[in-house]
Queue: 2 jobs
Job 1
Amino acid sequence: MQPISGLPAVQTFDTHCPYCALQCGMSLVRGGPELTVMARDFPTNRGGLCQKGWTAAEVLHRPDRLTSPLVRDHKGGALRPAAWDEALDRITSAIRAVQSEYGPDAVGVFGGGGLTNEKAYSLGKFARVALGTTQIDYNGRFCMSSAAAASIKAFGIDRGLPFPLADIERAGAILLVGSNVAETMPPLMQYFEAQQKNRGSLIVVDPRRTATAAAATLHLQITPGTDLALANGLLYIAIKQNFLDDEFIRSRTSGFEAVRRAVSSYWPDRVERITGIPEKQLNAAARLLGEASSAMILTARGPEQQSKGVDTVLAFINLALALGKPGKLYSGYGCLTGQGNGQGGREHGQKADQLPGYRKIDNADDRSYIASVWGVAEQTIPGPGRSAYEMFDSLGTDGGVRGLLVFGSNPAISVPRAGHTLQRLRALDFLCVSDFFVSDTAELADVILPSAQWAEEEGTMTNLEGRVVLRRRATQPPAGVRSDLESIQAIAERLGFGEFFSSEAREVFAEVRRASAGGAADYYGVTYERIEREDGVFWPCAAEDHPGTPALFADRFATPDGRARFYPVEHRSAAEEPDDEYPLYLTTGRVIQHYQSGTQTRRVNQLRDAVPESFVEMHPSMAASYGIASGDLVRVTTRRGTALVKAQLTPAIRMDTLFMPFHFGGPGQANLLTNPALDPVSRMPEFKVCAARIEKGSE
Ligand code: SF4
């Protein structure tokens, strides 16, 4: 590691953890050749870090770090080191060849929810300006897109949490749906613990009795895929028990009567049959929420990663609105965003239907404004493209994407129906991957670009609260490594569009500010200097003297008439329910040690040693009925494929449900099994529920 020249030998840099959307504050300290992590007091983590954060610097020093581009001379050939010029020339000639034979949309771009705002913005602009393609999407499509779509419908804007995290500890009641905070964002648990100490009640909805559920006032151990019925059922009880805020409904919302009619058939014994939650618990949950002076409903991937994810979130928003909570102190609806820049990554144009500032690519005014910022003719900006799974499904097909550039993502692990996805990736004419390591996706690439890591470059991230934070550069990247901004600029240059791009994060951020000005996600008043001074700035922030907006909706919602919208929604089955052939539910999620596809955390000794491979969690009674003991190899099969994993037995899971972590590749890869059934609005795949069968396996 090279120190930054001109600075003293011992240096401390305040920055943020490279992983999840909590964006915990940490300091990187250099006392010798390597950087070490120190926790620091930041409003989100208040000095806490999880084991992923504590060990994050180890990834910077890994010996298998890529320090040179790698190229493959022909399909099936070996990867070999190459000079940057050769690699960049290969990329641009492949782009030209594919586009001249199949047209501009035959080249696609896939980004990530961990990229900085500057990178996400540059990637979206690169696709539209330098490639002229409609085909760009990102892995946040697989995370928060259902909650984002529902929030836009109901509130007119998507900011995961419309209030700061600190509000959690003052909430009288919280309904936390499908989130295992104790494992995914451990420092966040201190807010829920404080809330309960303040005599607040915490209701957790989860098919597993997770560490989060075990700490709750009430755990609703729901049947996978039935959250929508639960929300409608709770609203039914709230109506019967007169918990509604009639004045709020009358003065600040529209559409309630249609919802009242829609939930009139969700009486408790019917909801008990659908959800598996006893009527007594349904009544208790409704009472805790309805009688609390302040209450929050928070959703995460459990209810969102369903083929009815948008309607499910709308059902919970209906409940929050009927109780009169959004826009009130310590109250409202929020989504717990997962990926490090899952929020900013969905605001600045790397999504198939979107332009920077949360503008829409099919809106004439939005197109015209962005064209003026980019200095291009409006008609040259392509229209909307395919969503993430649909793009992967099209790879190498007639009319599909034939050349793909992947930045900051590992779709070989994270896309559902992975066996099919791998086939499609192999069918590409050309694949370029930019990563720190030879990831599972990079193993298939024709060109790999070695990219800089979080501590080696600067940039901004937007956390789950909508707080824009600053990553500082604490060290130089290893020789031979470049930042993604440099790579994007260099490819654009070779394609004849270099003047439109900058490799300097501060210059790109200045453009993000202009491009987002006046949009829903307005960053115009956010500067690097303000972020440093103020521990982050909440958007919208329209001017440098604007204080930022920690809490939204106090006076009006972001809809044209200022009212929040109710939407009547009906329960429907998951795309695939258990049957005689596949009698069990399979759900997927995370473990505390690993992050996303594990490209980074699977390389950290302490984390890998703790959980080195995938597993399937099942109830001991279920295991006994199959003759399976703890540690036995199990074949888990769905209509997409089979995974071979070791059994972990726990009474904390429902008797009809299997759980697998999605961080691993190889024979135990969870996404070999998952169902790509898509939500019709958000195009979110149904990661959280499908039908499976098990049998005792062998190597
Ligand atoms: Fe904090 Fe998330 Fe990093 Fe853990 S992974 S230290 S919770 S930002």
Note: The mean pLDDT is 95.
Job 2
Amino acid sequence: MKLVDTHCHLDNEKFNEDREELIEKIENELEFCVNIGYDLESSKKTVGYTKKYKKIYGAIGIHPVDITGYSDELEKELEELAKNEKIVAIGEIGLDYHWMTEPKDVQKDGFRRQINLAEKLNLPIVVHSRDAMEDTIEILKEFPNIKGIIHCYPGSTESAEILIKNFYLGIGGTLTFKNSKKLVNVVKNIPLERLVIETDCPYLTPEPFRGKRNEPLYVKYVAEKIAEIKEISIEEVIEVTTENARKVYGIR
Ligand code: NI
């Protein structure tokens, strides 16, 4: 069994030079990966990749930083895109109080509307939450049936314990950073059965490549770090997190 990258952005221009090569590596060395949309254009590109490449699945949605202009028409387009066979989630959606391109209320509205869309389509969600954990949890409580992933989990162990009832925590390259004490503590205390591995590439590159471009195959370094923290074998990390990724995205 191989690893999964549950969150990548292969449409990013940083991959323009060698995207095909990279995808060939994914086809050979990963179980699969999920390309995550953040606006309409990237969502359309994501659908294109899922049609063209066997091991690429996708999520489509509007990121809180790109929520300006969210409308009924846009939502209809998203709904149509989400009906493609290999679109397995709505995301990334959520709240970002760090890059406030819109006030909190506008972000919350866009978040709620897209959770409703996910419920309607019976899909999980991929949640982006930055400096907004309290409000994120409040909104998710309004939707007791929705499931998904809290991507690049940024919160405390206490918040994690609340969230893992319905959500998996996406763990990425930040786990390998020197100042990652809080996240190390989360990984130590939360069962492996509730963790999935991601890169968020081209961002958040793990050690030993921190500062360079991130790529899907670097999930390996995150998996190694999880094994080290939990004092278990890398094989167990691969087996359990890959099964988790299949479950949450409904990929068999
Ligand atoms: Ni992302």
Note: The CA atoms of residues 127 and 150 lie 5 Å apart.
